[in-house]
Each structure stands twice: as structure tokens, then as C-alpha cells.
Amino acid sequence: MGRIRIAIAGIGNCASSLIQGIEHYRSLGERHPDRSLGLMHYDLGGYKPGDIEIVTALDIDRRKVGKSLKEAVFAKPNCTNVFNPGLPDYPVKVNMGEVLDGVSPHMADHPEDRRFEVANKKPCDVAKVLKKSGANMLISYLPVGSEKATAFYAEACLKSGVSFINCVPVFIASDKLWVKRFEEKGIPIIGDDIKSQIGATIIHRMLTKLFIDRGIKIDRTYQLNVGGNTDFLNMLNQNRLKSKKISKTEAVQSQLDNPLDSENIHIGPSDYVPWLKDNKVCFLRMEGRSFGNIPINLELRLSVEDSPNSAGVVIDAIRCCKIARDRKIGGALLSPSAYFMKHPMIQYTDEEARDMVEEFIKGERER
Q1: Edge-to-edge strand order for the sheet containing 294-305?
Q2: What Cα–Cα distance (Å) separates residue 265 from each residue in 170, 243, 281, 282, 287?
Q3: Max Cα-Cα span within the chain
Q4: Which residues make Cβ contacts (< 8 Å) with residue 181, sequence separation at least 6?
Q5: What is the pTM assigned to this prediction?
Q6: Which residues contact 51 (CB under 8 A, 6 or more apart)?
Q7: Tens-place pLDDT, residues 171-198
Q8: Which of 196, 223, 261, 293 fits a 20 to 30 Å CA distance from 181?
Q9: Contact criterion met (CB below 8 Å) for 229 and 272
Q10: How far apart are CA 174 and CA 242, in angstroms?
Q11: To 10 degrees, the CA torsion angle through 42, 188, 2, 340?
């Protein structure tokens, strides 16, 4: 089937987990009993995790720009779990990307091991770098609130013929105008805002659907999330949270026949706790009424390593994107987006979306 050549924008915790994971599953081999442990698909349309190759990388942090990919993956302020320290010496150095709104000013006001400092380098020509690298697709791991920067990288993909997998809550693959442009160019795109394998949003969606299917009237619900990685530090700036809150809230509201009034649903990042590092803790509450109008309340606490939790989904999104490129399908990939992303063009239940993805992989569904 050949290799899947990817570029990554943002060599933070999520990129670190993805790259460590690719090498981890490659090293196990096809006969190892744990080869599929932690994966939704080991073989996806003929592509395995080890078929993914990182061909170029972009960042703006001074500790990563100009460094080898192997060094940048473990550089501060990254704090995710190191489960595969023995990465190979990739022939890839981290390019200086465009800054734009990709970093919040308050990120510099913290101790050395946590603060974010922009490199004093001239940005590269991203479209040119993508084309020269031979990348099939660009994975965007930009910080929440990077509206202009995300649009810039989407534009670079259009110029270079590279697919775009938008893992952040900026609406590109769910925006009709952007989707039309990718479709006209024959370039597949997946987005927006990556789900975790077992995360706060997917559990909240499933419980919401369970309540409705079992005849429970939901009156109120909240989802509060805390963590200690740079994503949570970035989100202390409330001005960067608008699209994130929309994405997470719509992901849950979409499971309801009659959406809750805004005062009865609260979903979003809540606080930054440095010592949690890449651990994310979710506090979820649902209040409703059951048979005879009797109250029923549910409370749940979920604790996960945030970045590996999303990498397990991205590794499938990458392979679905490559299948679309092989089939010369352009525009938004509706099935993968619905299953892998919080804010797709069209929302489906997770059960429906999963069936759609399986049909897409088999070639029984175009998108």
C-alpha cells in the first residue's frame, strides 16, 4: 500500500504522543500479541500504524524550532507521558511556522518549564515546505483559539495540494466555503476538533443518548475539565475559548431531540492545575426525570492522559484521509469527521458514525 507521508504543525504533547505511538506499533510487528492494543483499527484499509512517516514539522517555540524532530518531541514545555523514549533519528528538523494568533501573550508569564517563548526566526514558506517534503497531509495541533493561524495553514494546504486534518476547534472542515474550496481542488479534509478515544465529550454524548433512549428527560448538565498541560494553560485566556465551547457543547446537544436552553448546559475547560501535567480530569453531572417524574442524577469523574487519548483517534483519521486520496475523493470526509471529530459538517450518533466509517473503509460509502 506504500507509505503515508505526514506533516505536523505544532510539536506539542499531542504530536509527541502520536509520534511515540507510531514507532511503538511499528516496533511490535504484525505477529506481536499486543499489536492492536489501544487501537480502534490495526489494519485500516490495508494501512497499518507503521506505514505512517513524518516528513516535515512546524512549530514556533524557541526550544523546538531548528531542532531535530526527535529532540523537539521531548522538549519543554511538553509534559506528556514518555512511553517510547527510543525514537529513531528522523531526518527532519522543525521549521519555523507563522505565529499570527497561534500563541496567547500570557503564555510567557510562567516558570521556564511551562512558559511558551516564540523563536526569533523568520517563518518558512509553509506551502513550499509542504510541497517539497512530499507530504500527503498536514495534521494541525495548533493551540485553541488559533483562528488566523489555522486558516493560514489550511490555505497553505490548498496551495500545495496537501490534505488537512484539523484537530483544533477552528471551523474549517465544518465551514461550507472552506469545504467547497477543498472539493474544487480535489483535496480531502477531516475536521474539526479531535475527539478522544475515551474522553469527556464521547462519554457525555453516549450518556446523553442513553438517557434519551431509556426515556429520561434531561433538565440540566455540566462538564468541567481541568488539566496541567499547555493546552489548559493556553485556555486560561477566555477570549480564545469561543469556538472550543461551541464545539464541545454542540457535540452533546446534537444527541438531543430538543436541545437544552443555554442556561441549563455548561461544557468547557475550567481551570489549569500545573501538577496534573498531561492528566485531564473531567467532572460530569446530569440531572433529569424518570418514570413518574421522579428525579435522577448522575455524577462521574474521569481521569485520563490527555494526549495519548487523542492520538489513538488521529492515527485512524490519518489512514482514512490517505484512503480518500488513493480514491481521488476531495472535500470534507463526512464519515471520518463525524466519528473522529467533535464539530463535523454533519453530526450523527457515535453508533451511526462508526458504521459509516466502516462502510467508508470498505469502499461502500464515498465520504
Answers
A1: 265-272, 217-227, 279-290, 294-305
A2: 21, 16, 19, 15, 10
A3: 67
A4: 158
A5: 0.94
A6: 1, 2, 3, 4, 319
A7: 999 999 999 999 999 999 999 999 999 9
A8: 196
A9: no
A10: 16
A11: -10
